[in-house]
Amino acid sequence: xxxxxxxxxxxxxxxxxxxTVAAHGADLTALVTSATPTFTQTVxxxxxxxxxxxxxxxxxxxxxxxxxxxxxxxPGLEATYVVKGSVTMIVEGQPDRVxxxxxxxxVPANTPHLxxxxxxxxxxxxxxxxEVDQPPMRKVP
Length: 141
Hints:
Elements: E1 8-14, E2 17-23, E3 40-49, E4 54-63, E5 72-73, E6 78-84, E7 86-91, E8 97-100, E9 104-107, E10 113-117, E11 122-131, E12 138-139
Antiparallel strand pairs: 1-2, 3-4, 4-11, 5-12, 6-9, 6-11, 7-8, 7-10
């Protein structure tokens, strides 16, 4: 079952510069901390797990050079494949890892983490396994 991506522009003021972010609901784009012009997430597919209280969300994320996301958590597993570019993953309890195109990583549910993009544009494909009626992410200190 495929659902079309819902996009809306959100104007943010960061480091004195207005930036535009394409977003779907409360996705990671709402947490971007860089003044880079665009950070895009496209929901490719959402599939409910009937009777289990979970659903999966498949997301393509396009990240311009130098963009970083603040520490955050998801209420379920995050499994990501790096399609192009290079990102540094910082996951609580693990050493920092630089991941390049062809690499993948997983973040357990409710584990604080963040990423920093490298000097070139990156693209990620992520599957989230999320709890129904829970926000897909929340920022943490």
